[in-house]
Write a structure and sequence with these properties.
By secondary structure, the chain is mainly alpha-helical. 71% of the residues lie in helices and 5% in strands. The protein contains 28 helices and four strands. A four-stranded antiparallel sheet has the order 1-2-3-4. Strand 3 and strand 4 form a beta hairpin. The chain is extended and about 110 Å long.
Length: 555
């Protein structure tokens, strides 16, 4: 099969079916090879029989008994078989001969059976294989005009009762249920293929509702029901395309479905039906959407659908109106609106919305910090540096952290106003430290350390307290100027580590010892360090990895 290539498969199937076929390669089984054909089974919503044929005018062709394939399309199951064959080409000659022998034997046997014997054979298989029986029952119902019969079968297929234990389908039974539910998809697609698309459309909608009703009672960790939902959505779309339903009715159903919980299961996008809706249907779609949104302006689904339609029509004002009807108290929605307006090329209005977001917030401590960042950046870009500093100052006053301190410093330095702003900011932090004690002093120490004002930071840590990480940073920055104080910090931090084990602990301990050695060097007391290390080795000698690490560093 030299003419079988991935490029050929993609051309025949189209990009969408080709991509979906990639996910079905592992579902291919029972590959049989003939002179110019290859057959196999592919497990999809149910098990389908597929065949690839090489030769003739088209070079490569295929057939699949899935509903999409029965309509003459080169489906995802054919793609999966083709990819499997490409990966296994070396073993094809041997498989081809084996398949020929099996086919001859089977044909010889079947040819020798009478009509009654063949009917008995089918009946026996039906009695043994429940799925086969249901498929044939559905085909029989679909072949006739018994819509009620098909509807009844679909309800049975989507019923979780036979698989549920105490009203819930466990993970171990979820796949079997999904395979049964997949037969409902096949039945609906068969209706479209047999010229009964109107019935298929109606039954697809009913099946979507039934599946949505049971999804919470199934452990669908592997996403089987999600795939069934997507297949039902495709079956509905195919039915609509074949029958061209009333655009007003279709628009109403699409909006109703989009606002229903079942929408999460099918992921139907009303805009995918735009060509079927036409101008009349799209107008109806917008009308129904607006009515639903006005009835529930804070509903997520209503807002999402309104925004989706507005953006598709480049109606930025409607997008803004939807957001503005449900403003978040922390200013996040104001930020979303500002970004939408910036994207639409309306920077003046965008700035107004961002500023309004800051004004509307009662407590800047609760603001969405991204809004502050956005507005500060816009001020800086516009050369309004004083406004940027004022915004950062107010935010720091409301939320005094190292991050807001840094942001204030950056804005003030850009405006050449940092010394005065720094003095005011540190005054606030000192007041916090005096009021809150140890906890309040930590931000003050962090800010001073970040400014590299080590001497004042040490004073603050001594007066208000600091955590071990801050003391370590202070010691590291002060070894050369105040080695005795730094040495005391290192010795205190080493103490708890000597009572712990593990390579990570040993690396920390050795790092502190190296810092201690540097302090003793500045103090001119190397003998004291040698004595300390000797005593430490004696006490820790059973920790072999620590001893090895100390040896590596000359300790």
């Amino acid at each position: 099969m030299d003419g079988l290539t991935e490029a050929k498969l993609k051309t025949l199937a189209g990009a969408r079916s080709f991509e979906r076929g990639l996910g079905y390669v592992d579902a291919v089984s029972g590959v049989e090879v003939g002179a110019d054909w290859i057959r196999a089974s592919v497990r999809g919503s149910e098990r389908y029989e597929v065949e690839l044929v090489l030769g003739g005018r088209r070079g490569l062709a295929g057939e699949c008994d899935c509903p999409y394939g029965q309509e003459g399309n080169f489906c995802k199951h054919l793609v999966a078989l083709g990819l499997t064959v490409i990966a296994q080409q070396d073993g094809l000659p041997e498989r081809r001969e084996t398949a020929r022998e099996r086919a001859r034997d089977l044909d010889t046997w079947l040819s020798g059976l009478s009509a009654d014997e063949l009917l008995t054979l089918v009946r026996d298989e039906i009695a043994e294989d429940r799925n086969l029986r249901r498929r044939l029952e559905l085909r029989a119902a679909s072949a006739g005009r018994d819509v009620a019969g098909v509807r009844s079968r679909i309800r049975e297929l989507l019923d979780t009762g036979p698989f549920a234990r105490y009203g819930y389908v466990e993970y171990s039974d979820a796949r079997a249920y999904a395979e049964q539910a997949g037969q409902a998809v096949s039945a609906i697609r068969s209706l479209t293929g047999s010229g009964r698309a109107a019935d298929a459309m109606v039954l697809a909608r009913e099946a979507i509702g039934l599946l949505a009703g049971v999804v919470e009672s199934v452990d669908d960790s592997d996403g089987w029901l999600g795939q069934i939902g997507a297949d039902l959505a495709d079956a509905h779309h195919d039915g609509c395309r074949a029958v061209c339903p009333d655009p007003e009715e279709l628009a109403h159903w699409l909006v109703t479905h989009a606002l229903d919980d079942a929408a999460d299961l099918t992921d139907i996008d009303p805009l995918d039906y735009e060509d079927l809706l036409g101008e009349q249907g799209m107008n109806a779609l917008r009308r129904h959407t607006v009515e639903a949104w006005k009835a529930n302006r804070t509903g997520w689904a209503e807002k999402h659908l309104m925004q989706r339609l507005a953006k598709s029509g480049r109606d930025i004002d409607t997008v803004i109106a939807v957001h503005a009807a449900d403003l978040a108290p922390n200013g996040h929605t104001h930020l979303v609106i500002a970004r939408e307006l910036d994207t639409a090329g309306r920077p003046g209005e965008a700035l107004e919305w961002a500023e309004r977001g800051i004004r509307d917030i009662e407590d800047l401590a609760a603001v969405d910090t991204a809004l502050v960042d956005h507005l500060s950046d816009r001020y800086a870009q516009a050369g309004r540096l004083a406004d940027a500093v004022a915004l950062r100052r107010d935010h720091f006053a409301a939320r005094r952290t190292l991050l807001t301190y840094r942001q204030l410093r950056a804005a003030a330095q850009a405006a050449d106003r940092w010394p005065a702003e720094r003095e005011n900011a540190l005054s606030l932090l000192r007041a916090d430290a005096e009021r809150k004690g140890h906890h309040g002093g930590r931000v003050l120490v962090d800010a001073l350390l970040d400014d590299k004002d080590t001497a004042v930071a040490w004073q603050a840590a001594t007066e208000f307290g600091a955590h071990d990480g801050q003391w370590l940073t202070l010691a590291d920055q002060s070894r050369a100027t105040r080695p005795a104080d730094a040495l005391a910090v290192y010795r205190r931090l080493i103490g708890p580590l000597t009572r712990q084990a593990g390579n990570g602990v040993y690396e920390q301990l050795v790092g502190l010892l190296l810092s201690m050695r540097d302090c003793h060097h500045h103090l001119g007391t190397p003998d004291d360090f040698t004595a300390y290390v000797t005593a430490l080795r004696t006490a820790q000698k059973r920790k072999r990895n620590l001893m090895r690490l100390m040896d590596e560093h000359g300790l």
